[in-house]
């Protein structure tokens, strides 16, 4: 199965009261493009399709905009998402930053009605319910991350009873984690394949990994350690390739990396390829994937190739890397941080075509080369002899001077069709980093913390952490935080990271391009730790919903 989705999109799940008449008149027959209480919930396939309608609400390519709302990336088109306003600090009570309960309503509708079909195997129905409960917990976790207190709704609301006050965040988080704990005891570790056991459905690992993420975001260190530790026993492993594809081998990195010998070059190249290829369609469902949004070939494509590539090769440059993200990639040789070039000096070297400009991009973390398109960087997989060149001011070009290559699938690009690779939402590397952060905050570094970090780093060809230099909690904390940034770039985790660490006021600053001219003016106000409830929703509630502090 390539896609967990629904043939039926149960609009509003469902229009209560839209039951048709029992008359036999032709004009009275139920419309073929709608479903009703009278025609649904009759057989096991109806239950199956209703589950798929909830899966259809999983996040997709829009996760890149979560990074666009942070210091990692610039989202230049305000009509594509709220990320432009969030990052710029131009949020108002009219900004809709994702206040929606459609997905939760679908889940509640399923849970309220699935028992009507008595011909479904009882164990299968229980599993279906666990899958939907997980999805509802995921949807709620995304809401609480943005808005804090949100209405906790677990039943189907009657018409006229839609206005529900906000529930304290702590109660919603407890509901989320209790649900995830409960369903983790029901869900299988894997699926055999074939309807209704398609690979890609929610697993025990997904429930525990999301639980670990939620506890981490709430700084509940012991609980995050416990949940991530459980995932680490389930057989997941970091994805690695054993050899380069012929097209990738054409990329000449000798200009960018000083290799000690052939083995050193092989380590670098396989680290780069392992990291970038885990997101490509050919490697869907690899050993690192815990949860992904499944796509149908060309029928339910994502738009990552379009959103991320530069206009010179058909992209829109919708979300592009900041200089601050570029600066975060350390040295391939030492594993240590790299001192960035002075912005004025970088601009002068760039404008005068000084060869010294290229020095900043040499001997960096292999994930840098797998993630960032920088001036003259090679990428034969996307086009023969391709080298990135920034065209400032041209249509659909980056405003920062960089583009992303991470999450782009070059093989699909060459087919001249939309990207239809699955979108990974949770992977094992995140679990290892969750464990490392929570364990370090709980009790300081120990061998298990270093081992988790080293596994992530060495997969990409980087050196292990220096256990002598980073023997203390505070010093290792900075390593862990930077590791999360570079490993999980563009995967939507930076948004909560900078809020959990309370560093948003320091990092959400105006960004410049490689010419040291302004790409986006940014301001920060502490009210931005939470997004505004849309004022129209407050007004419609007649005072039942309250606004977050600082928004008028």
TrEMBL record:
<dbReference type="InterPro" id="IPR012944">
    <property type="entry name" value="SusD_RagB_dom"/>
</dbReference>
<keyword id="KW-0998">Cell outer membrane</keyword>
<keyword id="KW-0472">Membrane</keyword>
<comment type="similarity">
    <text>Belongs to the SusD family.</text>
</comment>
<feature type="domain" description="SusD-like N-terminal">
    <location>
        <begin position="45"/>
        <end position="216"/>
    </location>
</feature>
<protein>
    <submittedName>
        <fullName>RagB/SusD family nutrient uptake outer membrane protein</fullName>
    </submittedName>
</protein>
<dbReference type="Pfam" id="PF14322">
    <property type="entry name" value="SusD-like_3"/>
</dbReference>
<dbReference type="InterPro" id="IPR033985">
    <property type="entry name" value="SusD-like_N"/>
</dbReference>
<dbReference type="Pfam" id="PF07980">
    <property type="entry name" value="SusD_RagB"/>
</dbReference>
<feature type="domain" description="RagB/SusD">
    <location>
        <begin position="287"/>
        <end position="551"/>
    </location>
</feature>
<keyword id="KW-0732">Signal</keyword>
<dbReference type="InterPro" id="IPR011990">
    <property type="entry name" value="TPR-like_helical_dom_sf"/>
</dbReference>
């Amino acid at each position: 199965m390539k896609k967990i989705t629904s043939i039926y999109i149960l609009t509003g799940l469902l229009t209560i009261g839209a039951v048709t008449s029992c008359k036999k008149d032709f004009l009275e027959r139920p419309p073929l493009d709608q479903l009703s209480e009278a025609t649904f919930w009759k057989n096991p396939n109806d239950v199956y399709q209703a589950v798929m309608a909830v899966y259809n609400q999983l996040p997709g390519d829009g996760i890149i905009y979560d990074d666009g709302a942070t210091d990692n990336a610039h989202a230049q088109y305000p009509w594509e998402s709220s990320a432009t306003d969030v990052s710029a600090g131009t949020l108002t009570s009219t900004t809709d930053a994702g206040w929606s309960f459609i997905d939760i309503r679908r889940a509640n509708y399923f849970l309220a009605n699935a028992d009507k079909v008595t011909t479904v195997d009882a164990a299968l129905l229980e599993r279906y319910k666990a899958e939907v409960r997980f999805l509802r917990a995921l949807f709620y976790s995304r809401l609480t991350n943005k808005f804090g207190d949100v209405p906790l709704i677990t039943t189907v609301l009657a018409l006229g009873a839609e206005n529900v006050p906000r529930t304290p965040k702590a109660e919603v988080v407890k509901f989320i984690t209790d649900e995830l704990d409960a369903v983790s005891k029901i869900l299988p570790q894997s699926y055999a394949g074939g309807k209704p056991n398609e690979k890609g459905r929610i697993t025990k690992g997904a429930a525990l990994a999301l639980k670990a993420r939620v506890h981490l975001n709430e700084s509940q260190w012991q609980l995050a350690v416990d949940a991530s530790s459980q995932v680490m026993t389930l057989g997941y492993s970091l994805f690695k390739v054993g050899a380069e594809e012929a097209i990738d081998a054409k990329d000449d990195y000798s200009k960018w990396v000083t290799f000690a010998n052939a083995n050193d070059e092989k380590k670098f190249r396989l680290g780069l390829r392992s990291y970038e290829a885990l997101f490509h369609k050919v490697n869907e469902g690899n050993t690192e994937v815990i949860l992904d949004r499944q796509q149908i070939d060309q029928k339910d494509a994502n738009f990552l190739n379009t959103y991320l590539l530069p206009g010179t090769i058909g992209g829109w440059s919708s979300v592009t890397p900041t200089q601050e993200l570029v600066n975060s990639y350390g040295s391939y040789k030492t594993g240590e941080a790299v001192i960035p070039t002075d912005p004025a000096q970088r601009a002068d070297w760039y404008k005068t075509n000084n060869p010294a400009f290229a020095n900043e991009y040499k001997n960096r973390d292999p994930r840098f080369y797998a993630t960032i398109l920088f001036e003259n960087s090679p990428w034969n997989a996307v086009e023969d002899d391709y080298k990135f060149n920034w065209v400032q001011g041209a249509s659909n070009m980056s405003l920062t001077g960089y583009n992303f290559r991470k999450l782009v699938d070059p093989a699909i690009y060459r087919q001249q069709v939309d990207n239809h690779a699955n979108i990974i939402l949770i992977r094992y590397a995140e679990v290892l980093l969750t464990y490392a952060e929570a364990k370090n905050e709980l009790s300081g570094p120990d061998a298990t913390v270093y081992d988790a970090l080293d596994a992530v780093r060495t997969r990409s060809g980087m050196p292990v952490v220096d256990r002598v230099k980073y023997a203390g909690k505070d010093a290792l904390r900075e390593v862990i935080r930077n590791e999360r940034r570079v490993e999980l770039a563009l995967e939507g985790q930076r948004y909560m990271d900078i809020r959990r660490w309370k560093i948003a006021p320091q990092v959400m600053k105006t960004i410049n391009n490689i010419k040291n001219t302004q790409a986006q003016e940014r301001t920060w106000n502490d009210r931005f730790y939470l997004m505004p409830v849309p004022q129209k929703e407050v007004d419609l509630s007649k005072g039942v919903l309250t606004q977050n502090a600082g928004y008028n």
